[in-house]
Design brief:
The complex is a heterotrimer of chains A (196), B (277) and C (270). By secondary structure, chain A is mainly β. In chain A, 0% of the residues lie in helices and 43% in strands. In chain B, strands 1, 2, 3, 4, 5 and 6 form a 6-stranded mixed sheet that branches. In chain B, strands 10-9-11-12 form a 4-stranded antiparallel sheet, with helices on both faces. In chain B, strands 7-8 form a two-stranded antiparallel ribbon. Chain B is an alpha+beta fold. By secondary structure, chain C is α+β, with helices and mostly antiparallel strands. Chain C has one domain (43-55, 62-265): Ribosomal Protein S5, domain 2 (2-Layer Sandwich), CATH 3.30.230. Chain C is 26% helix and 30% strand. Chain C has helices at residues 121-134, 160-178, 204-209, 236-266, and strands spanning 2-3, 16-17, 21-22, 31-32, 35-36, 48-52, 68-74, 77-88, 98-105, 146-156, 187-194, 197-200, 212-219, 224-231. In chain C, the strands form 4 sheets. Chain C has a 5-stranded mixed sheet with strand order 6-7-8-10-9. Classes of the chains: A mainly beta (196), B alpha+beta (277), C alpha+beta (270). Chains in contact: A-B, A-C, B-C. The interface between B and C is large, with 67 and 56 residues.
Chain lengths: 196, 277, 270
């Protein structure tokens, strides 16, 4: 690609903090930017327009082609499978974070007050999630010893895929209902708004 | 443009990764229903097999076998012990398969898993007749060779049995037993490594494992396919073309036709590997 | 006759077995007239070979495959390492991730008696050494609540300190291959004192006749030593000299590691 694609190993000096911003795959020590992963050194040019007076420096980052395994961070969007439900919380096995797969399923929980944004006290778990559902959620906190805390309050978060009691894949018909196309039965779920 | 292509490719790749991660079974079934497998092989195709002998110099016999990504090292250490009272002229060949958490996230640290125990026991019994244990005798009733064959799995991607059996055959062929003598006065066995003899294998064994995923019979299932397989069939042939072992395990019954198909494929496979070994 | 541990979960051999007395050892001395038996000079290291990543092309993502792996050879030493992570840890620290190391010798890896399957105290000690040598190099604050596990298996060992150094190099390569954020690659090298002379990278025969052995593991970019272990007695200035020379050897190992890692990236992506 560019003539400047140099492969760097961790610990290589890339540039000075005076001249560059440090991006992903790098760390700063004593005014020097070092690479932190094995990858290709890349420079992203500064944007022309800046709102503040400070001069925007080009960003130095190290990129790696192969899929990297992700861990959940606050604010990231996750895809997971509901493992267990009880009236207070649903246990979720987090499988993907921001479109990157996880090495092993992380444990998360969606508490009943984090399922919906409005009418939180009227939410019932059995009408929102069932075990086996695939949900899209956001990480709101690193949580306790065992699980991350997740929330499905946004419109585009909720159940993306579910099987009916008959075993068929259901189609969402509204934000709170899904229908089995073969048996025509309707089941209640907190559905995610489909992304067009 | 180049950039658009790669970003589009990346998007498609992500979508495929997502589908594979979330709906693992459905993902594999899509390939099988199209008469192919997720790595592009035909149903009856085995992965690339590499056998190297003599890879560990601290062992008296060793080999490294690789079938696709599944890699196994077999090392045979020869020690001296007293024979069993019931069989004063026979030595020992003890086989163990190690499936540690290193080779796959599937295995937990600690005691050997069920899979490892089953594999060890089966291979141990399979090779019980492969070596003439009387050739391991040093002094009848007093000293015999005890061969410990340890098969250590470095990377696990399905089909550990085939890999382990091939590794053991290769290691036994690589084995050089030193000439040993028992000094009856002191009871010490001394050995001279410069005069080493090869062990004659009664028969070489050529394994072939098949897995039944839904209704599809696939040869040499890798880890992803193994998880979906309901049944698997191991066919072991010896170098005279005779059947040494058939092992069908799993909850699903198979038809006679399927077994015949397995045996036929195993014969072809035996011909191919006998050239590699 | 030494007793073999009866393990009901494994196939067991005879209750007692012992190595025969080998009469062919001869008088081959590892050091003769200032020269080494294998023809190396006193500060020459054994040739290193590294292979990272899966051996066959991985067609699709596999959740049980390691994130990174490396196979390392240094002379006759052969070590394989697999890194899993970042994954959910048991220790769950919200500020930093944790790093765990597991070390084992294969039963046929040592030139003396076959090792039992059950881990001995020395394997546990070496696992701790490896953890302490590698942990300073990993950016654990980038992986809160997660844990990174490294598993090392020694296929063939040739010199205890040399094997530990090789294990450290192997884990470094595997961590880099896994894409784990590191401050630097850790390179390690060992030395032994024989007849008042420090000899680099000794094999088993040479270590057996030496009075003292040590190894140093180093992060060159920060010029920091992550681990230093000495076994045997010396004068303080002798150790000083050794650490200096060993650090230089580590720099050479580091160069080899970097070259192999860069070459692995240049290969067409699977």
């Amino acid at each position: 690609m560019s003539s400047e694609s140099v492969i760097v190993t961790p610990g290589r000096r890339l540039g000075l903090t005076q001249e560059y911003e440090s991006g992903p795959g790098t760390y700063v020590r004593n005014g020097m930017i070092y690479s932190s992963i094995l990858g290709t050194k890349k420079i992203e040019q500064a944007l022309a327009e800046t709102s503040d007076d400070s001069i925007k420096r080009p960003m130095l980052f190290v990129e790696r082609q192969n899929t990297k395994f992700a861990i959940p961070v606050i604010g990231s969007e996750i895809l997971g499978r509901v493992v267990r439900i009880n009236p207070r919380a649903a246990s979720v096995a987090i499988m993907m974070v921001d479109s990157a797969p996880c090495q092993e399923d992380f444990q998360g929980i969606v508490r009943v007050q984090d399922i919906r944004a409005t009418e939180k006290d009227l939410v019932q778990m059995i009408n929102s999630f069932r075990p086996g559902d695939i949900i899209r959620a956001e990480v709101i906190s690193l949580g306790d010893q065992r699980s991350y805390f997740l929330a499905t309050t946004k419109n585009e978060h909720g159940v993306v895929f579910a099987q009916s009691e008959a075993g068929n894949s259901m189609i969402p018909i509204s934000w709170e209902e899904m229908q089995d196309p073969k048996t025509q039965t309707i089941e209640k779920r907190k559905c995610a708004k489909p992304v067009t | 443009m180049d950039m658009d292509d790669t970003s589009e490719q990346q998007q498609v790749a992500f979508a495929m990764h997502t589908f594979e991660r979330i709906h693992h079974t459905e993902f594999q079934r899509r390939f099988l229903s199209q008469n192919t497998r997720h790595d592009g092989r035909a149903f009856s195709q085995f992965r690339a097999t590499h056998v190297t002998k003599g890879t560990v110099s601290t062992a008296q016999g060793s080999s490294t076998v690789r079938i696709g990504n599944t890699t196994v090292v077999c090392g045979i250490k020869a020690e001296v012990s007293e024979p069993d009272v019931k069989t004063p002229n026979e030595g020992y060949l003890v086989t163990n398969v190690e499936l540690s958490p290193m080779c796959s996230a599937r295995f937990r640290p600690g005691a050997p898993s069920d899979e490892a125990q089953v594999a060890s026991e089966h291979i141990h019994r399979l090779f019980g007749k492969a070596v003439d244990l009387a050739t391991l005798c040093i002094e009848s009733g007093q000293a015999v060779w005890s061969l410990s064959a340890d098969i250590v799995c470095l990377k696990y991607d399905g089909n550990i049995l085939d890999t382990a059996i091939l590794a053991l055959v290769a290691a036994l062929e690589d084995l050089r037993l030193p000439e040993a003598q028992l000094d009856s006065a002191t009871g010490v066995v001394s050995a001279d490594r410069t005069i080493a003899r090869q062990l004659t294998l009664r028969k070489r064994l050529f394994p072939a494992t098949f897995a039944l995923v839904d209704t599809y019979l696939v040869a040499d299932a890798d880890d992803a396919e193994e998880q979906l397989a309901t049944t698997s069939v191991l066919v072991v042939l010896d170098d005279s073309g005779r059947l040494a072992n058939i092992w069908k395990r799993g909850a699903c019954p198979v038809s006679n036709e399927t077994i015949h198909q397995c045996i036929e494929s195993a014969v072809e496979r035996a011909e191919t590997i006998s050239k590699t070994l | 006759m030494s007793a073999n541990i009866f393990d009901r979960r494994r196939v067991n051999g005879p209750p007692r077995s012992v190595e025969p007395l080998y009469t062919d050892e001869g008088d081959v001395k590892p050091f003769t007239n200032g020269g080494r038996a294998d023809g190396r000079s006193l500060d020459q290291l054994r040739p290193i070979f590294i292979k990272t990543g899966p051996l066959a092309v991985q067609p699709t993502f596999s959740p049980t495959a390691p994130s990174g792996s490396a196979y390392y050879e240094q002379g006759k030493i052969r070590i394989s390492c697999a890194v899993y992570g970042p994954r959910q840890g048991r220790k769950s620290n919200p500020r930093m991730g944790s790093f765990d190391c597991d070390f084992q010798y294969a039963p046929f890896s040592c030139s003396w008696k076959r090792r039992p399957h059950i881990k001995g105290a020395d394997e546990k000690e070496i696992a701790l050494i490896l953890e302490q040598a590698m942990a300073p190099a990993i950016r654990l604050e980038a992986y809160p609540k997660a844990c990174i596990d490294a598993f090392v298996t020694v296929i063939e060992s040739d010199g205890k300190f040399a094997t530990i150094s090789a294990a450290i190099n192997c884990i470094s390569a595997a961590l880099a291959d896994a894409g784990i954020e590191l401050y630097d690659i850790v390179a390690a090298c060992s030395m032994s004192l024989n007849a008042s002379q420090w000899v680099s990278d000794c094999n088993q025969a040479e270590e057996d006749v030496s009075q003292c052995s040590l190894f140093v593991s180093r992060m060159p970019s920060a010029d920091e030593i992550t681990y230093l272990l000495q076994q045997g007695k010396t004068m303080p200035d002798q150790t000083d000299r050794a650490v200096q020379t060993c650090s230089n050897s580590c720099a050479r190992v580091y160069a080899v590691l970097s070259r192999y890692l860069q070459a692995s990236m240049e290969q067409p992506a699977s």
